[in-house]
Design a protein that fits this description.
- This protein is of the alpha/beta class.
- It folds into four domains: 2-209, no CATH class; 261-282 and 292-521, 3-Layer(aba) Sandwich (Glycerol-3-phosphate (1)-acyltransferase), CATH 3.40.1130; 527-708, no CATH class; 710-808, Arc Repressor Mutant, subunit A (Orthogonal Bundle).
- It is built from 33 helices and 24 strands.
- The strands form six sheets. Strands 10, 11, 12, 13, 14, 15, 16 and 17 form an eight-stranded mixed beta sheet that branches. Strands 1, 2, 5, 6, 7, 8 and 9 form a seven-stranded mixed beta sheet that branches.
- A hairpin with a 5-residue loop joins strand 23 and strand 24.
- Helix 1 crosses helix 3 and helix 10 packs across helix 15 (363-379).
- The radius of gyration is 30 Å and the shape is globular.
- The N and C termini lie far apart (93 Å).
């Protein structure tokens, strides 16, 4: 019957190729799964399906793997390149037939015993169409639901309607050589392979499609029937003088206001629309470290994505990337401001659930929201929320809002039946469509309320946005984290009352800081960000093209050889090519004279480009500080540079969410100094480390590094100087006066950074001073300078530009 199978393959191949678009997961089989394309490969599939074989063939050809439809030569014998667990279901009785896998696998193992050098990679491959999760109720759409082994008739409709949503998912190869080392006969080992493969395919299917769709009656029963919500309903009825039924109806309305109404069909439609949009506006979306998340999913973890928030585009981009990486699309916590017609309903069906900006004083709403979140966790839905609470208007990470993290830990305390891991996500763009409105808001213009008209006008403006970047960070296993922070935290799991443990608030605060540090740990440098940093550091915001190309090359080499972290990513092209691509975004002015091209910032763009510079400023904070110290002191011994960096590092760490401990930062400082000396960005005599000579080609790049940190040091100097001039001052007054004087410096010295006088940034620095005991607080909350803050002020003023230091004397 082999000839008939080949004939059917040949007949069906052409129409199937027209209907099917294959997505291969992962795309790099060697690095993630260790699959060697040069060694023999036998594919292991769940169902003997012609359309599955064709989809696998399309994927294998694209990845450079052997074709599954061709025979494989093993020990001078011809064998099928595929093994199948079972045949498709019968159209009439829905039973599945058995295949010859037992005999075929046993035959392979016998060949191994006869040929000691033989080692075949048995690669399990899961092939899904549409990735629709199961439902608790049936309907006409079940005709195209992706069952494990559908009949040929059902498969016809599945391919017809879901052919564009095909996923070919590879798993780690099983070494046939290691299999025969197991105890038992060849038939027994083959039987063991079949049993393990069946379990593997079932789990893989669950990982890729996600849990059953939550029906509305299950949602009401799960939330309204929980003990905390029932208690809150009774309290609401008592305090508001309502009947129990009225209070319960109010709770039900809260459920409707909050809950998502997930529809996988909309996800598929959205994927197709977004693909067209991304292809139109982006040159590409670069995704890194997704293998970390896939490993969590395969190990049964509840995954909580916590990305930074740059743009409304984040909601779409992260979900789109997660879908294409073969992961279950998450339920997304969205602000209630986005719940307007018709967008709110569409987002709700795409998995969005809505939360109010404040829960304060509304115990019933709080109870309903918490129980809904816990229900999602316990049902196995992945969740996404933004720890910053809103979009960053400056390009920096905002201080985290801890509400969602606190509710997540409280859910674990109540008992989530799966391990829970937080996955930090860094998102970066070469163009953010809202930047102009952010600048208006920073200058005092009120934030516009979101509306359909606003979104429609934004869509019309979509154009060349360069590249998008999405890096998954190091996951945080919350059980392990609690074990480290609070070893006896399980003692509070049986707490019957609703009082939160005393340790919860500090642990949540530490967790929030850890999350933000891990987001920045996985930052992506892009052309727009590094060009903006260089030009904003240059006098007059202009550089010769050759100077800019050279500075980019130097900075990329520095971070490549002395990396900020293993997860931070750099462009894989030269500085010249990177600048060429960035200029196509039309953000800079290019003038040509007899000596060559000059790249400069347009006046109206200089301020907006600080946004992109701020996305990566934390990567250059320590190199910039080292350069500033060396330039200011004209040279210092290495140990003194390291000590001065260590003195200022806790403040930079707090403001820029740098992930390193003080000890790690000191080690990193030494590695940066060594690399800068090697490159010539610094030079040394017998005792001191000095700036490069003025006629060195490295001088200008080193000077730009020094300039990149100056605005931060200026802001520190303003706050410390104001603090030293007063016996005592309230925090709000210090923030206000610091902002006023910083704004004055902006006008006098042309500092083009809105966050330079932003109260939130100034407030973060004041918090850092308090946390590091550099200032004191009395019983009335007044702040007092200390001897340590006076010494710090002296150190900082020594590092800043003389004209700025002179202005500070006027305070």
């Amino acid at each position: 019957m082999l000839w008939l199978h080949k004939l059917l393959l040949a007949m069906v191949s052409v129409p199937v190729k027209w209907l099917v678009k294959v997505n291969s997961i992962p795309s790099d089989l060697r690095s993630e799964l260790g699959i060697d394309k040069e060694r023999p490969i036998v594919y292991l599939l769940r169902t003997r399906s012609i359309t599955d074989e064709i989809a696998l063939k399309m994927s294998a050809v694209a990845l450079g793997l052997p074709k599954p439809t061709l025979s494989i030569n093993i020990a001078d014998q011809s064998h099928s390149a595929c093994l199948f667990l079972q045949k498709p279901r019968s159209v009439l009785n829905r039973k599945t037939g058995s295949t010859s896998i037992q005999e075929d696998a046993a035959k392979l193992f016998r060949l191994h015993r006869e040929n000691p050098d033989l080692d075949i990679q048995i690669v399990p491959v899961s092939i899904l169409w549409g990735r629709t999760p199961e439902k608790n109720t049936s309907g006409w759409s079940d005709v195209i639901a992706n069952q494990m082994s559908p009949s040929w008739l059902r498969k016809f409709f599945i391919v017809l309607f879901l052919g564009r949503d095909n996923f070919v998912c590879y798993s780690k190869a099983v070494s046939s050589r290691k299999m025969i080392e197991l105890k038992g006969s060849d038939d027994e080992i083959a039987h063991k392979l079949i049993r393990l493969a069946g379990t593997h395919f079932y789990r893989r299917h669950q990982n890729l499609t996600g849990p059953n769709i939550l029906e509305r009656h299950q949602l009401y029963n799960g939330v309204l029937g929980s003990k905390p919500v029932r208690k809150a309903i009774v309290e609401q009825a008592r305090s508001k003088k309502l009947s129990h039924q009225q209070a319960k109806l109010q709770a039900k309305k809260y459920v409707d206001e909050i809950a998502a109404d997930y529809r996988p069909g909309l996800i598929r439609l959205g994927e197709r629309i977004l693909t067209k949009i991304w292809n139109k506006i982006y040159n590409g979306i670069e995704v890194r470290h997704a293998e970390k998340v896939r490993a969590l999913a395969q190990n049964g973890h509840e995954i909580i994505y916590v990305p930074c928030h740059r743009s409304h585009m984040d909601y779409l981009l992260l979900t789109y990337v997660i879908y294409h990486q073969g992961l279950v699309t998450p339920h997304i916590a969205a602000g209630i401001n986005l719940n307007f017609r018709p967008v709110g309903g569409i987002l709700r069906k795409a998995g969005a659930f809505y939360l109010r900006r404040s829960f304060a004083g509304n115990k019933l709403y709080t109870a309903v929201f918490r129980e809904y979140l816990e229900l999602l966790f316990n049902k196995g839905y992945s969740v996404k929320y933004f720890p910053e609470g809103g979009r960053s208007r400056t390009g920096r990470l905002l201080p985290p809002k801890t509400g969602m993290l606190a509710m997540t830990l409280q859910a674990i305390l109540k008992g989530v039946n799966r391990p829970v891991s937080i996955v930090p996500v860094y998102i970066g763009y070469e163009h953010v469509m809202e930047v102009s409105s952010y600048l208006k808001e920073l200058n005092g213009t009120g934030k516009k309320k979101e509306s359909f008209l606003q979104i429609f006008s934004a869509i019309k403006k979509l154009k060349n946005y360069g590249y998008g970047f999405l890096n998954f960070g190091d996951p945080i296993n919350l059980t392990n984290y609690l074990d480290q922070q609070v070893p006896d935290w399980r003692d509070d799991q049986d707490n019957s009352n609703d009082k939160k443990p005393k340790w919860l608030t500090p642990v949540v605060n530490n967790l929030a800081t850890e999350v933000m540090g891990r987001i920045n740990q996985s930052a992506a440098i892009n052309g727009m960000a590094i060009c903006a940093m260089c030009l904003l550091s240059a006098k007059k915001h202009a550089m010769a093209q050759s100077e800019l190309e050279q500075a980019i090359e130097h900075f990329l080499e520095l971070l490549s050889d002395a990396p900020y972290s293993e997860l931070a990513t750099l462009p894989k092209i030269s500085g010249k090519k990177l600048l060429e691509n960035t200029l196509k975004l039309n953000k800079f002015d290019v003038h040509k004279d007899s000596f060559g091209k000059i790249i400069s910032l347009r006046n109206r763009n200089a301020v907006s480009l600080t946004y992109y510079r701020n996305n990566i400023l934390h990567l250059f904070a320590l190199p910039g500080l080292i350069a500033a110290i060396v330039f200011a002191h004209k040279g210092l011994p290495k140990n003194q540079i390291v000590l001065l960096v260590a003195k200022l590092y806790p403040l930079l760490k707090r403001e820029l969410f740098i992930y390193m401990s003080i000890e790690q930062a000191s080690e990193y400082t030494e590695s940066i100094i060594s690399k800068m000396l090697e490159m010539g960005l610094l030079q040394t005599n017998q005792t001191d480390i000095q700036p490069p000579s003025a006629n060195s080609k490295m001088f200008y790049s080193a000077w730009l590094l020094n300039r990149s940190i100056q605005e931060t040091l200026h802001r520190y100097a303003v706050v410390l100087t104001l603090l030293s001039r007063q016996e005592q001052v309230s925090r709000s007054e210090l923030e206000k006066k610091s902002a006023q004087f910083a704004e004055r410096l902006t006008a006098l010295h042309g500092i083009n950074s809105p966050e330079f006088f932003d109260k939130n940034v100034l407030g973060t620095f004041i918090n850092a001073l308090k946390e590091n005991a550099l200032i004191e607080t009395d019983d009335t909350g007044q702040l007092h300078h200390t001897e340590q803050s006076a010494l710090l002020k002296t150190d900082v003023i020594d590092l800043i530009e003389p004209e700025i230091a002179q202005r500070l004397q006027q305070i």
